[in-house]
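Issue 218. Parser rejects a valid record. Input:
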Amino acid sequence: MSGQKVHYISTKDFNNTERGFSWGVEIVNVLTLAWNAKERKIYYRKGKQYTPERLRFWILHTFLPLVLELERTYRILHVGSVEVEGKPILFSAFSFGGKSTLTDYFLKQGHRLLSDDSLGIEKREDGYYAIPSYPYHRPFRQLETLGYYTENFSTTPKPVHAVYRLEKAAPDASVCITELKGIEKFKAFHYSSFVDFDFMKQERFAFFTQMAQAVPVYQVQIPWNKARLPEVYDKIVSHSLTIENSKENI
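Output the parser choked on:
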């Protein structure tokens, strides 16, 4: 939780329960955020260390994705996402796995941003759609900040083209892309969940199982050497442009 002490809270923790608060989170000494499902509104209460910048961060980065997930509006994935020739590709990795760095490199090459950190996924009749998040990206390690604003931001939901799971490799290793199948493919979605509530386990399992059958997933071996980012970039772009034909065989 971005280096802060955070509690989930319920209606009994609010003094004014007649407002219809459903649940909320308290970021200790910073602020309290509450979701009113009936009104479809977010309320907040200032703490001693409150700032407008912190309010914006906690709503966009953490609270709103939680609301969208718990309201079953979207499934939220903890991924970076950009467009390659208008098609969304997703970068999945564990913390400090390189997805923010790679997302930033793609942006510097002129690609459009969908998400730096959390991305909504919506199931539609014709596929699984990436729902753009907010126009900020953070290629650096600093808590409670959204990072840099970018005007090159996608505002239109589009079908997910492919998912790339990033795997660290030795600095001199080859850049390799291999397709994932079976349980390994499912894990790429499962371990990219933004939130992992036990009571949603069954429905989340069903969603990702079905998504894994419809969206191609690849593992990218990433040499841990920033000087080789251009090579990684070229490999992923070239690969993403050849996926269309292979989708028929998923």
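Fixed in the parser; the record now loads. The longest helix spans residues 52-70.
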